[in-house]
Amino acid sequence: MVEIAVKYLESTTGARCVQGDPDRVCRGVAIDSRAVEPDAIFVAFPGERVDGAAFAPQAIEAGAGAVVLACEPSDELLESARERGCAVLTCDDPTEFLLRLAQGYRARMQCTVIGVTGSIGKTTTKDVLASLLAKRYRVHATAGNYNNLIGLPLTILSAPADTQMLVLEMGMNSFGEISRLTACAQPTFSIITKVGTSHIGMLGSRENIARAKAEIIEGMPPSAQNFEGHHSALILHGEDDFTPFIIQNFARPAGVDVVLAGTSLDDDVSAANIELDEEGCATFDITFEDGSSFKTRLSVPGAQAVPNALFAAAVAHRLGIPGFEINEAFGALQMTGRRVEVRRARCGARVIDDSYNASPESMAAGLNLLCSLPCEGSRIAILGEIGELGDEAGRMHDLIGAYAAAKPLSLLVCVGGASAERMASAARLMGMDEGDVVVVPTCDELIDRFAATLGERDLVLVKGSRFVGLDRFAEEVCADAR
């Protein structure tokens, strides 16, 4: 983790030391006073409900080496800090403070950074890549959803000083966010998994989403430059319709080489002969740009995992990891929870728990998986509303309902309000029987009506945006299952 003297905190971040020993050494960073360990830097964020500065006394009591405030400290706080040898600093913007501190630490580590962004598949790609690189390198990767303007710098700052590979997921809601993240991380390799419709409500169009995702290139060195032992490369999906747009308008002007990954023979890294086994896991032939090839199997279900694996393999191959180690890693993958996780319910039903989040594209992929696995009972899709679609929300939920109607479902349960009603209406319009489509307003009602009705041979997909809370349904039906 980061280890830095107070005087260098000032010079690195532009913060002002109000009080404290400039040679005082701090270790680690926390933004929650309850997580403060001895010598840590506590950064207080002002909030709408609670101002983090109100918890600075607790951080000092816990042994913080420094507290960083966005307001002037009180005399009482200064006195408490003086008694305990804690430095007190002020800054204009705690987020910018974290980003600058993380950028300085990342530069001192001199590790190789891989940035991962995209509308869908970021976390799966990050998990696969971290597993691959761990075969040869000391790897530190984004945990959970620490992929925003606060989470990414905290990820960097928590990395061991001897980290060799830093795998960073980069999320965004608006223009400029990835620009700030990539300036902090300075990735040598970057992956844009997909230009989809997530956040279209904020950005207005897929072209704008492509522009926002392409900001990741801004922090990359030109490929002609040897940067910390490697030449940069941007990994893109060969079959994404916005790939040519990103290459022409962003990668080429920046002098960054592009590696295409997909299912076309023209792609630099390609998959062919894709088949799903009875567990829904894909087997396929993978071929690299140097002509090397082998057959492999992913240990996670769903055809949608194949491109994510290809993105990760493209980076690993460039870093010198041989095919047999990539194959071994593919067969031992473990993903972040609630992302296409096939679980067993107490009643015996199989539950595809993909409740972490959703987009129209990932919803379609979930339905594809539901209908590709063997099932002796009922195929049931429990779909929650999708957020952040803006003016496109109605149309997108109509499309999901229509797509579900084209699948061999025994039951479609739509969870939520107006958008859930739109999904259900579209499914009925496209031919699903009235009795096979149900709308429930909340997860609580979903649990009450359906948790005890699943059969032991049923196959159930549970997917929706986080705010719908479908993870509670999955936990209810799967808890204590053996």
Largest sheet report = 9 strands, mixed
Return Rg in Å: 24 Å
Q: Distance N terminus to C terminus?
A: 39 Å
Tally the helices. Answer: 17
Average pLDDT, all residues = 94
| Helix share, percent | 25-40%
Low-confidence spans: none
Q: Classify the secondary structure makeup into a structural class.
A: alpha/beta
Task: Please count the beta strands (DSSP E, at least 2 residues each).
Answer: 22
The geometry reads as globular
Query: Roughly what fraction of the amino acids lie in strands?
Result: 15-25%
Main-sheet strand order equals: 9-10-8-11-12-13-14-15-16
Written account of the structure:
The chain is of the alpha/beta class. 35% of the residues lie in helices and 22% in strands. The protein has 17 helices and 22 strands. The protein has helices spanning 6-13, 56-61, 75-84, 94-109, 122-133, 151-157, 177-185, 200-203, 206-213, 243-254, 305-318, 323-330, 360-372, 393-405, 418-429, 443-450, 471-478, and strands spanning 3-5, 16-19, 25-27, 29-30, 41-43, 66-69, 87-90, 112-117, 139-141, 165-169, 189-192, 233-237, 257-262, 269-276, 281-287, 293-301, 341-344, 350-354, 379-384, 411-415, 437-440, 459-463. It has a nine-stranded mixed β-sheet with strand order 9-10-8-11-12-13-14-15-16, with helices on both faces. The protein has a six-stranded mixed β-sheet with strand order 17-18-22-19-20-21, sandwiched between helices. Strand 20 (411-415), helix 15 (418-429) and strand 21 (437-440) form a beta-alpha-beta unit. Helix 13 packs parallel to helix 14 and helix 16 (443-450) packs parallel to helix 17 (471-478). The chain starts with a strand and ends with a helix.
